[in-house]
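Key idea: predict the complex, not the pieces.
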Amino acid sequence: MKRSSLVSRSILGFLLLFGAAILAAQVPNPYRDPSQPVDEEYSKKIREYTTDPSFLSPLVEYLPASRTVPTPQAVLGDIAGAPGRLPYSADVHRYMRMLEKASPRVKVYSIGTSEEGREMIAVAIASEANMARLEENRSRLAKLADPRMIKLDDAEADRLIAASVPVYYITGALHSPETGSPTALMELAYRLAVDESPYYKAIRDGVITLITPVVETDGRDRQVDIYNWHLAHPNDNWPPLVYWGHYVAHDNNRDAMNLSLKLSRNVLNTYIGWKGQVIHDLHESVPYLYDNTVGDGPYNAWVDPILADEWQLTGWNNVSEMTKFNMPGVFAHGTFDTWSPGYLTFMAASHNGISRLYETFGNAGADTVERTLTPGQYERTWYRQNPPLPKAKWSQRNNNNYQETGLLISLSYFAANNRMFLRNFYLKSKRSVEKPRTAGPAAYVLPADDPRPGLQAQVLRVLQLQGCEISRATAPFTVLIPVKKKPPEKPGEAASPAKKDEPPPPRQFPAGSYIVRMDQPYSRIADALLDYQYWSPNDPQKSPYDDTGWTLGELANVQVFRVTDLKVFDAAMEAVSGEVRSAGSVEGAGAIFAVNHNADTALMTFCYRLRNAAIEAAEEPFEAAGHKFNRGSFLLKNVSRTDLERAAVDLGLRVYALSEAPTVKTHRIRPARIALVHTWQSTQDEGWWRQAFDLLAIPYTYISTQDIAKDGNLNSRFDAIVFSPVGRSSASIISGMPMWGNPLPWKTTELTPNIGKIDSTDDVRPGLGWSGLQNLELFVRRGGLLLGSGDTSDLAVNYGLAPGVSITPPTRLKVVGSVLKSTFVDPASPIAYGYGDTLSVYCDGGLIFGVSSILGGRGGRPAPETPTRATGRGTPDDLDTPQTLKWVEPPPLPKAEPWQALPVTDEQRRNGINVIPPHLRPRVVLRYADAKDLLVSGLLDGGAEIAQRPAVIDVPLDKGHVVVFSNNPIWRAETHGTYFLVFNAILNFDNLNAGRKLDEK
Ligand SMILES: [Zn+2]
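Result:
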């Protein structure tokens, strides 16, 4: 807390002199212990690799010498941030272990592995005394983290706080092209272990620094490969980092809600396990140091206001101290909103700690280059009084200087105020426990009679991963649930209020219902995930940084009740121990087995696991053995009961043995041979689809658009080609990257051992090409299924693979990663199997589809309010009757709903070359809800443009089908409720016309 006033005064003096005096080493650096020798050679190189003295601070301009502890040079062969040096993750870890061996102040922990099996570590650094008492400290922090352990006793909390040291967790290299943090963190760890100055000593005494130097180890190693390739080919362009992690690229920083990636779980478990107070995540995209801890509005609505204050405190302190060092380009606030809880660092925010994030300036590699900024980057604004330079030579060392200086200031501030921050931590934890009686709600209830127990368990497992406690009712219970006001039918009308004095109706939940109590320390993350989100179209923030809605229950298609009635705590319940799983079994006797289709994703695994059995899908609902089965339910024959029992138990599915087959109409399910397609331009969105298929053990072949271009007989290998969104225009998917310059290989070589494993090519530049497009068309015409979403739907529509479907450009529609309501309009389509009447879907942008029975028709029609009659006699609804001698009453105009094609007129059918035959017309399966019901969660403006429009269309093309999605059904391991729209199409690829009603003409 207190530094001697002598030191403070000398710091002030130093600050006045520092800028000019950096080269004159005789001026004493007040942050340094003059009695500790400096590693002169290393320090000289720091100054050499720093391109301007103003990019250096007194905290890092020297490196203290140690006779026993190796510097990063031991592994790097040069200093941290040296040009041309990027260490692999294993090298970084090796250095940290060298530190551990050499210093009692350092300890390295293995915290898990990546998808590809690379290790992740956490390095703890503190004083010898703190290191010796890590366990005692942790058990005290555990009581502050869960104040129920001390019965919310503030006095006891104060005693614990006085004896405890907080944990400040720093994470680096989450984003692989942002390459600077590993070397910065290696050197930071060395400094923290070795430097004997009071400044460093205060940090070691006041805080336990925890460091994961490389979060995305798979991507880091690939990035180092690419950089080494670049060094070996200095005159060539180098390949873009097509794959970062095994599945996703920058979206590894959007997984903090669903925790589907191993790195997310490893970081959260480390943070929770250490009972940490901060996660400080390092990124590189903004010059020179943007501390976006403060960020911009809107702030996440579920965090404790204490945290919002801590963001200001820590962020502005950082800016202030670095401004005093005369380092240009340090600022906070910025334009990044803090709404979504999906960011890695937000794990701390949603678990009673403090989330912090730096964007520093990296060169995506270790080259020193001239960097020219845009006016938007260098112009002064109120929150950036001290902007970066419009043009400067920039080095990896500069970046490391900024990262280390900022982190040291943060650690110093945290150590100096550690009692306050620990007390805040305790208060936030306590207030989370008190939530039912303060802000509410009391609990969320997931009823035992949900028709989708497997998906329900999926949601609950996410909460368990988040560290939330789940309870289960052991008897039925009743609570009052307020009625939601109905929105007005027409704008201008008042909402129908609940009748005065009318008590909310009681609702009984059956025994076995799950209860997520809010009187627990991690109630906030459960609340944030299960609640609804509303982002006003009038919000001053016009550019949401990420998704605006994410309601987990809606996206999983399971029921979640927000209960404010405190009587919920009177329910008989027990804590759930172990992972929540839905119960699976085979009941009854007989050789035919029925499984209800409820759109549980496990059914897809089931069908592929038992693909040697004879599986039929029922085309109508039926009843058998006293149970009701939905349309699409599965009937199995020729399957061993043992195999079936094992599958049912593993997958949590209820199977019923029948002595005879029900009389319902069925068709055969022949699990399709699937191709998952990727481009070489972006694998980011595709990765979430690939992950979903892997996690559900759905077999597929992974091919690129280049493979499609070369294969004129795709049908010989595949039945279904799944072309998930790319994030590029259709034209760009076809053309690929520009063909000028040198080839850009993505291959495993001695120089690049970590790339080319997921897929490989000699040159990433060529795209799908016209031959690829032709091969896709042939594939469909011969009976294949092509499935697209978003931009790949656009590709299918605009390049003639989906006759009768059109896309209208939006004029007002704004939907940014929101949850929208949709309605099934053709429940007999196999794509609708297992679903109810409505479904919440994830929508970002959202293609506005129209359908027509006329080839090239736009399917457009006037807006509902547009006047339709001409000037003449009578009222607006009357028919005009011209004052002529002979007048024929006009026939009624063709009418259709916005999701339907207009009926074909006789005029159109006369020589109807362009009239699509009824059996080849687009079949709309799912449409967006009416405007008033459309928004479920997030931001929606101008929703009328997409309201009632088709969302999922099955388009026959010759013998095959093209299925296009306006929404993205597989997104960030978050949309389990819509996965089966895709799976149904695949399972029924050769029977998609089942249940189809054809137009008469
Ligand atoms: Zn980043």
